[in-house]
Design brief:
heterodimer, A: Alkaline Phosphatase, subunit A, 9-stranded mixed β-sheet, two-stranded antiparallel sheet, 13 helices, 33% helix, 15% strand, B: alpha+beta, 6-stranded antiparallel β-sheet, 3-stranded antiparallel β-sheet, 41% helix
């Protein structure tokens, strides 16, 4: 057994209250905060400072699950019923007959290939392609009036994750890690779970720390892919590892003897101890065999569709991570643009029907099960669930195809859980789904609301970088109060 | 910094409250009646500041958001924002008041809503008649104006006399400045550090590498007083100096070797720029020259590769190359690309965030939106991409070699074409005859059925002889489902995965998701996703020999792809079966089907009509063309490098209102920043000025001897890298949001030195590292730390953790495996995958081809690289004027567990085995001196001997690499 924490390193920290603060903020992202608090060492500062688990106001949510369907999942084929499309099917889109979208010319208006059905007490109409998700409409607040700045996937995904359409800015999870620090010293604060089909458009920029310190970037893991470099090299035995760690500790103590004031050295010693704990905790959290069969079945684990099976496993992993104090999980269902539009993600340019008949069954049951499971465990009370995509699709079909082109002017995202009013729809696109028409909502409004639920004023949560106090919501955004419970 | 900001705010406010001339201004009541001047007090003192602070950001002349400018009363009046009769009902008030409690009012759209007090002021003003003094034009005040310290000319500074300083601190002017400030802060400097620590500090600082055991020994044992100076000179002359300081510069200018954004394709030919930077630093090229080459190398040295390559600077940032048919979006993307260049240039050279003036005037610094678009006009002709960079002689030579080959090839190609036409013409005469043999329906994408006499089979194969889109190709087609049926009504598809079938066939590769296009998709029972073939054969194996009589396959079973290329199908095929996998029997082919399209029909005609003589002739021509193509390929290509591509500028440049390219404001021309116009000579070019002249004018202006910012920013960067922190701690932001200099006089004095030295860096390096401030100990002193925790005033030399590159380079060097070869294409610590878009996968093992210095790593964007990423090597999405130095458990995991550490540990251990020849104490002593530059203490020695005896040398070395001492320097 390891001794945790090692007496020496902690003792050193205790003895150096004057410099505690440096170490403290230095390690906030890696979990020392919570540990120090447990030990009664840290009360945190009085005024709000990032990394101490403090918020601006009383939060409703203490963790976030963000499900991302990359490729621009069609709002009018999944979430927002547009009877106008049935009525006007085959006719040109009035006023935009010659509109050139991302891939060029468009044909006439095209109805959704699937009927919508009213579900739940709210009577919310939802695509019949999502029978499992339909059971949750009463828990969900739909944002039907979303609009984006860009019609390109990479910038769109990055915009949806960081509030900026160019890469290099911190993602929402990184902001949360920065703002709150860690809630579990043995696991990362922010985890991104990529799909078995690969990374989303613009890859790692979606879970980047941007200009925030590196510790705030997401740790990448999935049911198929453990955290990198987690286990010791195969040639090193457990006891050898133990003695190596003691030797490192000895070397560091010798070195620190005449450098007693330099907190960075102690911080690094503590980081080695935290790494050792992570080596124990992470395999446990990833071990899905610990889940009862009933749970695995609920999610669809073991489905003959291996893509669904893979996503279902990742959904369970997401819940297990959240349960154990991971603050932000960014879970992907689908991946990047491939050689064939709409093959690996929701980008149905050419053949909407057959594309979504592949994607919906992968997404539907596992996602719904995740909501059910969180609810049953009481976790939905303080877990904020977000469903996002980078933008919407055109109400017309793309010329010469039966698919839809990109449409940044109107799309749907939704929220459920902590502090969110369920069974409601906020905003709407016009009668065809072309543009956000009622209560148009920006990505910044969406995250202004998310931060509000997390206990933060989005205009005050900022970080200086090159000339500016940068924010997740840039210089925009508000709080959509209509969706607050 | 807060202090200065408050001072500023005070100044601005005072300025607003006491406009000396206002009292005598005649006023207009918006609706016609002239009033007395003192009635305008409310407007001038209360209303104007509200409008200036909260509204003018977006509503000013040249940037009339919503077509409203609030600089003058005209738009308020004309737009009906004020109600003449019922002032209280004015629309202006509706806009700034919340519709209901808790809801954000419509205006200001960005930023905080007005306080109820402010709304009250507006209401009072409107009710009283909305007085606006005649001729009063409001202007949004940035927090700073041209009097901001950083915009002032360099001060003539004399070196302070420091009588109280120790003798050693009186020799170097730098020390005098430092000592004076220490005195002001009631701090005292530290004693000189030990030679052992000093050489380690200096070697890392100047070359990024640890000193060798011999170097340390020699220096520590050298009694001569100028031993240190000699060491400094040697290191500054070392080629590794350029590798170290070039890396710093590449950080600042966001040099990355992939395109970024969604496609993020790797850039394989940007490394010549990296080498150029290293070379330039090693040559101590004047920085003024370097800056000019970066911005306008093509103008300074056209056809001189070594000069033109400087322009890679312009295009080594990320940019969106996905392509967009939506013209508005395409214009936005282009504007973003130019914006990236403006930001990179202004931050790197001037330490100014000009990019913040894209949508409106800079909020803090005196940079107007017009200024931004003056730079936009400057970069408007720059495009990303590769181009040939060669001397005229090289171009001529290649042309001479290529011309005859091209001519011959074109002649043969024409001949071939003519022959084909002759054959096709003959065939057309017999078309009915040919068609007679095509008795069956053409192939359909939704499904092709072949029935045959039932027979036993275990293996079935489809052999493709042509595809729809290209009858000559037997690859590149798609199949979504392939079924093999047993006879009868209750027949089963025995090819299906569910019944134990398996499918094989070469496919398009997606290495990050191997199933993406695989042959398995043909038997998964799902339609829509297709096998994309990269070969002519699909082989199906049944679970056991089975009687079959029907095959059915398709590329678009659902039928929703129509004629789209995405479902490109086969045009010509054979189907064969076998029971043993050796003897094959054909059961069907497409030869009697009607052709699927015109190209297919012609292909058939060609095959059927050509005589054997013609066949020979065509074959001969094909061979000759192929031979010529090889020869053409063998002619050495001109170097194609990633560098600035320049196109003429057809269009005028306009201010984009609110940053939106669709909303053009006033026309602007390429010109210098207006805030400097009064302090030194700027420039303003003609609207039609040639593209290259614009960049050259900017470059000349930046390095004008009167431009105070460029030298200040440079010397500050140099200082920052030597002492861990800049005199201005925000090295790319000398504006209001940046920090104030800790030693303002020293900064200006050093900037003057840089100019006196002809913009050369090495004399400045020497000056700094020769100082006592640099040579003092880093030992912690609690009393001093209480006053100055991060040693900004240099009461000690600030210790630091090594950078990612230094850590990796050190591991390689102490293990004796570092390859010091310089330049050329970089190595990769990831696997590069490309399937439409790029993916960068980290590698579990790093081969010895990667044992080069970190600066030669091919730094792609959005690539996580083991060790480098964890130790804060920045993603070049943005400039990184400062490196973070974080501490995380992930660093521990990587350094402990990645195979690279173990490989290095083995190499070091082997090296020590050789050098110690069985002497265990010597082994440990050498391990310490190689890794830490010192000998072990007695207790360390004993501990090490015991550990090594039990666990071996490799694990001991692994522990050394993980220790704090290895990656921290004093």
């Amino acid at each position: 057994m390891m001794k945790t924490p090692t007496q020496s390193a902690w003792q050193a920290l205790r003895n150096r209250r004057g410099f505690l603060h440096d170490v403290y903020t230095g390690l906030a992202g890696v979990g020392l905060t919570a540990l120090l608090r447990q030990e009664g060492l840290a009360d945190g500062p009085r005024t709000w400072e990032p990394g101490f688990g403090q918020t601006h106001h009383l939060p409703k949510a203490s963790r976030v699950l963000q499900i991302f369907c990359p490729g621009a999942a069609s709002h009018m084929d999944l979430w927002e019923h547009k009877p106008g499309l049935d009525q006007w099917h085959g006719k040109p889109l009035p006023g935009e007959e010659a509109f050139l979208s991302f891939q060029g010319k468009n044909g006439n208006l095209m109805r959704s290939p699937w009927p919508f059905v009213a579900r739940g007490q709210s009577g919310k109409k939802i695509s019949s392609m999502l029978p499992y998700m339909a059971r949750h409409v009463d828990d969900i607040a739909f944002f039907h009036g979303m609009h984006s700045k860009t019609n390109t996937h990479g910038p769109g995904c990055v915009f949806m994750n960081t509030g900026h359409p160019t890469e290099g800015f911190p993602s929402t999870g990184a902001w949360m890690s920065y703002a709150l620090g860690s809630a579990n010293e043995n696991l990362p604060t922010y985890v991104a779970i990529p799909d078995v089909r690969g990374e989303p458009p613009n890859g790692k920029a979606n879970w980047s720390n941007g200009f925030l310190p590196a510790r705030h970037q997401a740790i990448l893991m999935s049911a198929q892919q453990p955290i990198r470099n987690l286990s010791r090299p195969g040639v090193v035995s457990a006891s050898e590892e133990q003695r190596t760690r003691s030797l490192i500790e000895f070397l560091n103590q010798q070195h620190a003897e005449d450098r007693s004031g330099d907190s960075a050295l102690q911080a690094r010693m503590a980081a080695y101890e935290l790494a050792a704990r992570m080596q124990l905790s992470a395999p446990e959290v990833s071990d899905l065999s610990r889940e009862p069969d009933s749970v695995r079945k609920l999610y669809g684990v073991g489905d003959s569709n291996t893509l669904k099976d893979g996503y279902a496993q990742n959904c369970i992993l997401a819940r297990r991570l959240l349960e154990r104090g991971v603050r932000y999980v960014n879970l992907y269902c689908a991946s990047r643009a491939s050689g064939v539009d709409g093959l690996l993600n929701w980008d149905a340019h050419k053949t909407l029907k057959s594309d979504y008949e592949r994607h919906c069954p992968i997404f539907d049951q596992p996602t719904a099960a995740l909501l059910t499971d969180l609810k049953q465990r009481g976790m939905l009370d303080d877990t904020l669930v977000l469903w996002t995509t980078e933008f919407g699709r055109m109400p017309t079909h793309q010329e010469g195809t039966s698919g839809r082109d990109h449409n940044p002017d109107g799309f749907t995202c939704w929220m459920a859980g902590a502090g969110v009013k369920g069974g409601m729809s906020y905003g709407a696109t016009d009668q065809f789904g072309r543009r956000a028409a009622i209560n148009p909502t920006t990505v910044w409004d969406f995250y202004g609301t998310v931060l509000h639920l997390l206990g933060f004023d989005h205009e005050r949560l900022s970080y200086y970088y090159n000339g500016f106090d940068r924010r997740l919501t840039d210089v925009h955004g508000g709080v959509v109060r209509d969706v607050l419970a | 910094m807060k202090h200065s900001l408050n001072q500023w705010l005070q100044k601005v406010t005072l300025h607003r409250l006491m406009p000396s001339s206002c009292r005598i201004l005649p006023c207009v009541l918006l609706f016609g009646v002239t009033v007395h001047a003192d009635e305008s007090k409310l407007f001038l003192e209360k209303v104007a500041p509200i409008l200036e602070t909260h509204c003018l950001r977006c509503h000013y002349p040249g940037n009339e958001e919503g077509d409203v400018s609030l600089a003058t009363p005209d738009d308020l009046r004309d737009g009906g924002y004020l109600d003449v009769r019922n002032g209280d009902q004015s629309h202006l008030l509706d806009l700034v008041e919340p519709v209901r409690a808790g809801k954000k009012p419509e205006m200001p759209e960005d930023g905080d809503p007005l306080s109820s007090e402010q709304v009250g002021v507006l209401r009072k003003w409107v009710v009283q008649g909305a007085l606006w003094p005649e001729g009063k034009v409001l202007k949004e005040a940035s927090q700073a104006d041209a009097s901001w310290w950083a915009f002032q000319a360099l001060k003539e500074v004399s070196v302070p006399g420091v009588t109280k300083a120790p003798v050693s601190w009186k020799r170097n002017p730098v020390d005098a400045f430092i000592f004076e400030e220490l005195q002001n802060q009631h701090l005292s400097p530290s004693v000189p550090t030990s030679r052992r620590q000093l050489i380690r500090r200096l070697c890392f600082d100047l070359t990024g590498l640890p000193p060798s055991v011999e170097q340390v020994k020699r220096f520590v044992g050298d009694p001569s007083p100028d031993a240190y100076e000699h060491l400094v000179d040697r290191l500054l002359a070392s080629p590794h100096y350029g590798e170290r300081w070039g890396r710093h510069w590449l950080d600042v200018i966001r040099f990355g070797e992939s395109r970024g954004f969604e496609r993020n394709e790797i850039i394989r030919n940007a490394w010549p720029f990296r080498d150029y930077v290293i070379r330039s630093f090693n040559q101590d090229k004047p920085l003024s020259r370097l800056i000019k080459e970066h911005l306008a190398g093509d103008q300074l040295g056209p056809n001189q590769p070594d000069v033109e390559i400087g322009t890679t600077f312009l295009v080594c940032g990320p940019y969106d190359d996905v392509g967009n048919q939506d013209p508005a979006q395409a214009a936005q993307i282009r504007a973003n690309t130019i914006d990236e260049m403006i930001r990179a240039s202004s931050e790197a050279f001037l330490g100014l965030t000009v990019g913040c003036a894209r949508c409106h005037h800079h909020k803090f610094d005196p940079i107007s939106q017009e200024d931004y678009y003056r730079w936009y006009a400057t970069f408007a002709g720059v495009r990303h991409g590769s181009r040939e960079i060669a001397s005229n002689a090289e171009r001529e030579q290649r042309k001479r070699m290529m011309e005859p080959l091209d001519a011959e090839r074109n002649g043969l190609a024409k001949e071939r074409e003519r022959l084909e036409i002759v054959i096709l013409k003959r065939a057309e005469m017999k078309k009915d005859l040919f068609a007679e043999s095509w008795t069956r329906d053409p192939i359909k994408r939704t499904g092709v059925e072949e029935r045959f006499e039932k027979r036993l089979a275990k293996y079935v194969r489809l052999i493709v002889e042509g595809t729809e889109s290209n009858p000559y190709a037997s690859s590149g087609y798609g199949i979504d489902e392939f079924e093999v049926w047993t006879p009868g009504k209750a027949g089963q598809n025995v090819a299906s995965l569910a019944l134990g079938g398996s499918a094989k066939g070469a496919s398009r590769i997606a290495e990050d998701f191997v199933k993406a296009y695989s042959a398995q998709l043909t038997i998964d029972g799902e339609y829509g996703a297709r096998w994309i073939a990269r070969g002519s054969e699909l082989s199906i194996t049944l679970s056991r020999p089975t009687e079959i009589d029907r095959i059915y396959f398709s590329s678009d079973r659902g039928g929703d792809a129509g004629n789209q290329p995405v479902a490109n199908f086969v045009s010509e095929y054979r189907l064969e079966v076998s029971s043993d996998g050796e003897q094959w029997e054909k059961v069907a082919d497409s030869h009697d089907r009607q052709p699927v399209n015109e190209a297919h029909r012609k292909w058939r005609w060609m095959m059927m009509e050509q005589t054997s003589e013609e066949r020979q002739q065509l074959k001969g021509l094909d061979l000759a063309i192929a031979r010529l193509d090889r020869e053409r390929k063998d002619v050495p290509e001109l170097p194609r490098w990633w560098a600035g591509n320049f196109t003429g500028i057809e269009e005028s440049t306009y201010v984009f209102i609110g940053g939106n390219p669709q909303r053009k404001g006033k026309e602007v021309v390429s010109a210098s920043l207006s805030a400097f116009d009064t302090s030194f000579e700027g420039y303003r070019l003609d609207p039609g000025a040639a593209e290259g002249k614009r960049r050259l004018a900017l470059a000349n202006w930046l390095v004008s001897s009167e431009n105070p910012l460029t030298p200040r920013v440079w010397v500050n960067r140099i200082w920052q890298k030597h002492f861990g922190q800049g005199l201005v701690s925000t090295p790319s932001d000398f504006g209001v949001m940046g920090s104030q200099p800790s030693h303002a006089d020293l900064l200006d004095w050093l900037a003057g030195q840089l100019l006196d030295n002809g913009w050369r860096m090495k004399p400045l390096h020497k000056l700094l590292v020769m100082s006592q401030a640099y040579r003092q100990s880093s030992t912690f002193r609690a009393d001093a730390a209480r006053a100055d925790a991060d040693s900004r005033f240099l009461w000690r030399f600030p210790p630091r953790r090594l950078s990612a590159e230094e850590i990796r380079d050190s591991m390689l060097k102490v293990s004796g495996v570092l390859k010091l070869e310089m330049g050329g294409a970089g190595f990769k610590l990831y696997r590069y995958l490309q399937d439409n878009v790029a993916t960068y996968q980290p590698l579990d093992h790093h081969g010895s081809e990667t044992y080069r210095r970190g600066i030669y790593h091919h730094n792609a964007r959005a690539a996580i690289v083991d060790l480098m990423t964890e130790f804060d090597c920045p993603d070049p999405a943005f400039p990184a004027p400062r490196r973070a130095s974080t501490t995380t458990p992930l660093q521990a995991l990587t350094l402990l567990n990645h195979s690279f550490t173990l490989d290095m540990a083995k190499a070091l251990s082997n090296q020590l085995d050789q050098d110690s020849a069985g002497d265990e104490e010597r082994w440990v002593t050498l391990a310490y001196s190689r890794s830490y530059g010192r000998n072990p203490t007695e207790s360390e020695l004993q501990k090490a001997l015991a550990f090594k005896a039990d666990l071996g040398g490799v694990l001991f070395c692994r522990a050394l690499f993980n220790s704090n001492e290895f990656i921290h320097i004093d």
